[in-house]
Write a structure and sequence with these properties.
By secondary structure, the protein is mostly helical. The protein contains 1 helix and no strands. It starts with a helix and ends with a helix.
Length: 31
């Protein structure tokens, strides 16, 4: 991955989409 803005945007998208979904799945799984 190239440095600078590209990686920052990609990381932000992964954090917003991936981690949010991961957190929801963990909450559903624990219940």
């Amino acid at each position: 991955m190239s440095g600078g803005v590209d990686s920052s945007v990609a990381a932000a998208l992964l954090k917003r989409q991936g981690y949010d979904i991961f957190g929801i799945m963990l909450r559903l799984w624990s219940e």
